Model the fold of this input.
Amino acid sequence: MASNHPLTVSGLSISFGEKQVLKDVSFQVARGETLVLLGVTGSGKSILLKLIAGLVKPDRGNVLIEGEDIVPLSESQLLPFRKHMGIVFQEGALFDSLSVRENVAYSLREAGEEDEDVLDGAVREMLSFVELEEAIGKMPAELSGGMRRRVSIARAIINRPSLMLYDSPTAGLDPVTAHTINILIAKLRDVQDVTSLLVTQRIQDALMLDNSVYSPDQQALIPASPNGNTHPAPITRFLVLRDGNIHFIGTIQQLMATGDPYLLRFVS
Ligand SMILES: Nc1ncnc2c1ncn2[C@@H]1O[C@H](COP(=O)(O)OP(=O)(O)O)[C@@H](O)[C@H]1O
Ligand SMILES: [Mg+2]
Done:
């Protein structure tokens, strides 16, 4: 079972009552790759992310993180694996009773870090990454939707994860704010070589990530060079869930080439 892949999912199945939500789902994600999860509402995108994070146990199948199956692990055995994963839940899901500082510091404190200077330094570094240092003393209720989403990314990356799981990170945001989130996703991917799984209803965001690279000089997304000379195009694949199965997995070019009307409706 040894594998250098950051993520291998094999034979994953889960039912809720009568409904089989995922049926024998298998795929592999390469380092630095972005896998975009598409599917209608209720197709199992969120549950797939929760299975990968070890937050939910499957009925059958394996989730290999860096070649190790996390399915049989207990909550405490999962901790070292979770350290390498950053999870941005649907709606951001900040702790409303905690300040931005404490939200971002949360998992470091959980892991036993008690030195306030270390915590403060780490929190400031993460907030600076998401360009939100000024919000450190604020409460979540004082933040806009886009700021909350950026804080949730800062919280997710404090352990310097190598695998990021994003569940609809731009949902409900205006296009300009959504773009700032896309820039952060690309920045993690291109500057820190993070592997990403991205659930999105906004196909334009996924296509933008596919076509762009983060430029540290310009602090912006710039077009990925098609021939890969100056800025190699990052690897992005699209996985479409349908009736519990993988209906399609491949690049956008492969998806378009299928001519499959079911697939094309996700990308138009
Ligand atoms: N904890 C749960 N209990 C019962 N049913 C669930 C639970 N989590 C998810 N489901 C069901 O699994 C299906 C897939 O849900 P989800 O992964 O949230 O879909 P998506 O994110 O693609 O919209 C839905 O039918 C949902 O009702
Ligand atoms: Mg969902």
Observations:
- The CA atoms of residues 126 and 203 lie 27 Å apart.
- The chain has a mean pLDDT of 91.
- The pocket of adenosine-5'-diphosphate (ligand 1) is lined by residues 16, 19, 21, 39, 41-47 (CB under 6 Å).
